[in-house]
Structures are given as structure tokens and as C-alpha cells.
Amino acid sequence: MSRKTSIATTSLETLQWFIFLLASSVAMPIVIGSIFDMSVVEISGLMQRTLFVVGLASLLQGIIGHRLPIMEGPAGIWISVFSVMAITGVRGGNTLTETLQTLEAAMFFTGLFLVIFGLLKISSKILPIFTPLVTGTFFLLLTVQLSGTFLKGMLIQADANTIYLPGAIIAFITFFIVLALSAFGKGTLRSYAVLIGIIFGWINYLIFIGGNNLQTNSAVFTFPKIFAFGKPTFDLSVIPIAFITAIILISNMVASIVAMNQTLGNNAKLDNHQVNSGTIFSGISHGFAGLFSTVANVPLATSSGFIGLTGQKRKQPFIYANIILILIAFFPPIISFISSIPSPVANAALMASFVQLVGLAINNLTITPLDSRKVTILGTSYLIGMGTMFLPTEAFSDLPTIVQNVMSNGLLVGTALVILMEQIWREKTSIVEYK
User: Helix, strand, or coil here: 291?
Assistant: First the structure.
């Protein structure tokens, strides 16, 4: 009898993990598809590759890497890089497809940096640079930059410059449903707020507006395509972006590991081996993302929130759920159905989930009192980083491509600036105390 109970419990926990993995993955391919003007078939292919790489990366990390039940999901910082390079690439005379090929190379370079950082144990040695001021500024700039992308997806249809009111109304209803469930829901409602919001918005979109006809490969079973965007273009101009992104991703991974260890009741002290091993396999997952032409992943700190809400701390269901996610990726009809989620609905769900990042940014910034030094560093980095986001797309056109790709990305500029200023302008607490 206990065995039957164990099987039933494991099955239910596996189902919950699978839904969480799916809900955290489906929106990003649709957002990227809308940014790069992809067809329904192309978005379906991107969805297939995304789910495959998410499942594979999460499985490898859970078994060999940091060995924690932390989902590897599409990284917000990569959405930012994709969005900016979609603009700079076209401005530089490249097609959107050529830009995607350059982005494949950028993910390979980033993965290489991460593997090197992990093997040489550099990851655990550079942790002191990721102060609360740095992480808080990063999250704040990330929400500012991506909010424009998400809001545009909620309001404006592809190939249009005006607000599409019916779609916008459903998008905002979806947005507030996800917010309400996240803030006031309990148990299952709160755990699956994003999924519930997407389902609600999707159904209403189909009823009041209609949907696209499902288009997919006629084959029932196919392997995710390698280099779907074409062979990567190894442009040296993306190396600075790859290096800065790799540094920032280490900070993200450390935050996820610390949060999960606290949730599981493990030793609160950060394990350097976990950090270095996790960094290596994060680099490997970036290689998979470049190989299968999708958005690179990052350990999602929301995994600890999921475990805290559901109370399911066993790793076994997490492993099973990722295996199921990998297997589903081989069946195009299922993927085609999932990828038909309307873009306004997907963008609204993502916008709502990023509200929590604003709170995380504020918490990091206010962990210690904001003295004159911190306010100056924060204000300078934030204003220059955010200001860069609003500069005309032609502002950097006369600069070398290698400079354009970095300087036109306000997130990278602001984050690099806060790191540099923190390291150059050190706190002199001992002098202040003696005075």
C-alpha cells in the first residue's frame, strides 16, 4: 500500500514540476518569434528546440552540475541581447536571419567563457564583485529594458504600428489575472498563476478574436533541428557581449543556488564546488542553445519559490519531469499546439512575472542603507544605462560593430558601469568610524 501511495505521490509531484517547466518556457519562444517576424511554423520549431534544450540542460544540472532541482529556463538577459541585436543587426545591413546566426555564435562564445570560468575555479573567486548594489541595479535595468518589448507585444500586432484594441484588452486582463493569483492566490492557484493566466487568455482570444490555423511538419516524430537559423557567424564583435553576459550569468546562478539551498534546508554556506560545477554545465547548456538555435538558459530562482509553495523537496520528480519534457519535444503536433498561444497573451504573462523582479531589485538595493556613495553609483549607472536604451537606433552607427553591440545595450552598459564603479570607489568604513 505504501508503494502505491509513493507512486501516486511521485506521479503528482512529477506532473506539477512538468507544468511548472512548461509554463516557464512557452512564452519566450513566442516573444522571440514576434521580435524576429517568424512564421507560425518557425515559432513551432523554436518552441520544440526550446523545450528540448530546457529539459536537457535542467536534467544535466540536476544530475551532474550543481545537483539541485533548479529549472534552467530562457534567460531574461538573453532576451535583452536578442532584442537589441535585432535592431543593431538590421541597422548594420544584416537580415534578421543573419542576426540570428550571429547570436548563435554569441551563445557559443558565452558558453566557452563559462566553461573556462568553471574549470579554472574563477567563478567562486569573483563572487565578491556581485554585491547587492550590483544585482539590484542589474534587475532594475533588466525590467526597464524588457518591459518595452513585452508591452509592445501586448499592444501591437506584427507588421502594425498602432494598438490592436481587442488583443490589448485580453492581454491586460491576462496580465492582471496572473498578478492577482500571484499576490492573493494560495497553494495551487499561486503556483500555477502564469499557466492559469495563459490558458484563460488563450481561450478568450480564440473566442473573441480567433486563432491561427495549426501549421506543422506532417511528421508525427522529428528530432529537433540543428542550426535551424543557419550555420553560426563567428563575428568577433560579439565577444565583449559574450564576456560581460557570462559574468552576469554567474551572479544569477549563485543567487539561484543560495535560494534553493535555503529552501531545502541545506547548509546556508555557499558551496564553491556547486558554483564551479554549475558554471561549467551552464556553459555546456549555452553550447546546446547555440547548436539547436534557441535562447540560452539560466538557472531560474523561481524554482525555489515553486518548492516553497508546493512543499515538494524531492529531486526525483524534478528529474522525471525533465525527461518527459525532452520526450515531448520529439512530437511536432504537440509542440505546434503549444506554440499557437497568441503573442499578446504570452507577452502579458511574462510581463506579470517580471513584476517580482522589481521587488527583488528594490530588496537588493535596500539591504543596507543607501549612503551617498551608493546613491551616486546607483544613480549614475541607472541613468546612463536607461538613457542608452532610449537613444536613437542610429546613434552608434558610426562606431565599429564591436562597440555598437555593447554600447547600444543599456543593460550591459549599466551593469558594467555599476561593477566598475563599485570596484574603483571602495567603501572606507574604518575612516568613517574613527571620525
Answer: helix
Q: Express each pLDDT in 92-150 by its tens digit.
A: 788 999 999 999 999 999 999 999 999 999 988 887 887 888 888 888 888 888 788 78
86 half-sphere exposure, CB direction, 13 A CA radius: 15
* Residue numbers in the chain where pLDDT is lower than 70: 1-5, 158-159, 188, 191, 212-218, 267-270, 309-310, 393, 401, 428-435
Q: Mention every residue, 6+ apart, whose C-beta is less than 8 A from residue 199.
A: none
Instruction: Write b or e for each residue in 121-136: b if 16 or more Cβ atoms lie within 10 A of its Cβ, otherwise e.
Output: ebbbeeeeebbebbbb
How far is residue 368's CA from residue 427's CA, in Å, rounded to a whole number? 13
Phi, psi for residue 258 in degrees, rounded to 5: -60, -45
Q: Within 292-409, where are the H helices?
A: 302-310, 316-328, 332-339, 343-353, 355-365, 372-389, 401-407
- For residue 332, give Cα distances in angstroms to 21, 228, 338: 18, 15, 10
Report residue 70 as a C-alpha cell: 533548479
Which residues are CB-neighbours of 51 under 8 A, at least 6 positions away? 22, 25, 325, 326, 328, 329, 335
Give 121's DSSP letter: T
pLDDT digits (tens, 9 = 90+) for 14-72: 887 887 888 778 878 888 988 898 988 888 899 999 999 999 999 999 999 999 999 99
Best CA proximity match to 109, nearest among 193, 233, 19: 233
Reference 94, options 28, 158, 159, 36; nearest CA is 36
